[in-house]
């Protein structure tokens, strides 16, 4: 099978430090190549892959000091795909929905995996207009805001288990917070949980420019006045394995509809249980009482920390291996690829029935004030 994988350009594939979508694309691409498929990866020029790499930006956009316009480079990426389209049997996109109009010009079927949150009112209009394009969710919870999209499957993320050996036993005696500093990820709640539980907390996270104010005004002062809380900044993959493996538990006190939560399966692959808020995909990823504890408040999280010794770290690892391997993820996608190739590509959208206004028609009739109210 000749497969085009089209990745976002914010990070390299795989990212050297923080990065979710590009990391998933890297793991999937490697598994497809290992299975004998002819894979071409459209990604930033500093990516590293066993597939044929088509560089669509000189380097990952987040690390480029010139602060390039992401839209410009993603349009250039789509043009690269268009020019080489005859070389592929199938096109797998991971760049949200920028490519939707192009899908009708491509010679083979397309598949789009949505990796982000979908609870914006505008998206319902978009997915009604492109209602025939095949879409994959990364959790069932992710689908809830746009149930009318053409969902053809849910594929949970996976990772190469060899990269996350369960060599460590939580002997570091600390709680871990991993990912990104922003309000929805709950770093302030993590500090409160650790302090109330009387345990050290290590925070390994990046701070994006958009969250710099939140970091300086809220999180950095909180860390400074909280004994036992240490900020490590971004860490690489090798550091991450030790960081997670030596932790008693990973704290995941999110305040948003998390579409999946890659750090959850990274921790569990190391045998480290997680303590996570019941939001978004968390109940699909965490087996409550086996691979971690699902909680609804700081108070419940503190109690879960005290009960973390009741969880068997070998069982945590076993569940991760069973449910979240990169080979399982690739098998799931291959089944969808074969299904699409058997049925051909998408047809052009049919005109909306004039007797029944579409969401796009309804949206166009709203005043600016009404649209602003919906967005809020």
TrEMBL record:
Organism domain of life: Bacteria
An MF annotation (GO) of this entry: D-inositol-3-phosphate glycosyltransferase activity
InterPro entries: Glyco_trans_1 (IPR001296), Glyco_trans_4-like_N (IPR028098)
Domain Glycosyltransferase subfamily 4-like N-terminal intervals: 18-119
Region: Disordered, residue numbers: 343-376
Pfam families: Glyco_transf_4 (PF13439), Glycos_transf_1 (PF00534)
UniProt enzyme class: transferase
Protein name: D-inositol 3-phosphate glycosyltransferase
